[in-house]
Amino acid sequence: MLEVVRIPVLNDNYVWLLHEGASGETVAVDPALADPVLEAAAARGWTISQIWNTHWHGDHVGGNAAIKAATGCLITGPAAEAGKIGTLDRGVQEGDSVRIGSHEAAVLEVPAHTAGHIAYHLAPDHLLFVGDTLFAMGCGRLFEGTPAQMFANMQRFAALPDDTIVFCAHEYTETNGRFALMVEPDNAALRERMAEVHAARGRGEPTVPTTIGLERATNIFMRSRDVAELAERRAAKDAA
Ligand code: ZN
Ligand code: FE
Fold first, then answer.
1. CA 134 – CA 209 distance, rounded (Å)
2. 57 is catalytic
3. What is the CATH superfamily name and number for domain 2-239?
4. Which residue in the list 19, 103, 121, 170 is annotated as catalytic?
5. How far, in Å, is the centroid of ligand 1 from the Cα of 136?
6. Is the pLDDT of residue 1 over 90?
């Protein structure tokens, strides 16, 4: 059985702790910082045995060195970004898989936010760690890639089962949703979701994780019909 714990850090980052009881293994996904992540693990009697990074940005790898110093954990991340993640022990790429206990995660290459960005998909467990590629009602900025790449990523995610739980690395939901409503003002699912999001944020609650089904209904980037439409929406969002 897998447990997932959300650790809010910095302004709006989420670090995810994934724990497997039988093996006692614990994975920290994209640790922006070390201390809150080590504390969250210790509070549960867990020791971090691995780190899985999705991309090289500081708010995803910043805790690598100190967590490794404290635990001796194995650090896995995109082989394509090994030059930018000095703490990497193991570079992985499309077709590779990584394990936590007996549970396997497929490595998916989803470039666009960064050139080597990867996601971790535990298909039998219906869990997907997407870093900064897919957000609740949004997608990552195209810092090192193209609209065509992001369109392909969105199509790929959209093809996964609706009940796949999506763990993204930021709480961007409310601003994403506001923009989405300008693009699709008549989308009933989107309007309903935004009412729930406003209420949750008003109570100071997180809105992540999300699901593939929810994103298929409300994410204007996943719902883009072609590359040009995604490109136009992404550019408009960047300028908003
Ligand atoms: Zn990033
Ligand atoms: Fe980030």
1. 11
2. yes
3. Ribonuclease Z/Hydroxyacylglutathione hydrolase-like (3.60.15.10)
4. 170
5. 15
6. no
Domain layout of the chain by residue ranges: 2-239
3-state helix, strand, coil in the chain (%, to 5): 35, 25, 40
DSSP letters spanning 120-175: EEEGGGTEEEEETSEETTEE---SSS-HHHHHHHHHHHHTS-TT-EEEESB--HHH
Whether 117 is catalytic: no
Asked if 65 contacts 33 with a C-beta cutoff of 8 angstroms, the reply is: no
Query: What SS3 class is residue 10?
Result: coil
Provide the whole-model pTM. Answer: 0.98
- The residue from 19, 113, 117, 121 that is catalytic is 113
Q: How far is the CA of 193 from the centre of ligand 2 (A)?
A: 23
Residues having C-beta closer than 5 Å to ion ligand 1: 57, 132
Residue 108's SS3 state is strand
For the chain, the farthest-separated pair of C-alpha atoms sits apart, in whole angstroms, at 52
Question: Which of the ligands is closest to the CA of residue 56?
Answer: 1
pLDDT of residue 102: 97
Does residue 168 register a pLDDT over 90? yes
Q: Which of 60, 103, 117, 121 is catalytic?
A: 60
* pLDDT, tens digit, 9 for 90 and up, residues 186-209: 999 999 999 999 999 999 999 999
pLDDT in tens, 112-145: 999 999 999 999 999 999 999 999 999 999 999 9
Residue 222: count other Cβ atoms within 10 Å of its Cβ. 21
